[in-house]
Amino acid sequence: MNKSIIPALQKTFGDRSISRLDKQAFEQEHGCELEKDWLEFDEKDNCYYLTPEILDYQKPSHEKYEALGLGELEERIVDVLEEGKNIKWGKLAIGMWLIFLFIVVYTIVETLF
Known about the structure:
Blueprint: H1 6-13, H2 20-30, E1 39-42, E2 47-50, H3 52-56, H4 70-84, H5 89-112
Antiparallel strand pairs: 1-2
């Protein structure tokens, strides 16, 4: 299951008890089924609680990347261009011609029949 629903769970229920009706209503509202390991069932109160892992879950923050210097950027561009030299252009050209011929033949066959 997608973990993007966890913040909504935290906001909606927090550390309070969750009845079966509350659980079903949440699942219907968000169009998902809550995973069993996200909830703990308390037999004494006959209700669910969010597990500590879910209560403590925080969305992973995006790592901040440093900007490349001009020298590093130039090196990466040169590396990519060097990799482009290894492409078998003859095979690629033959493949493109075959596709072109297929399109031409297909168009002629479609117009005649």
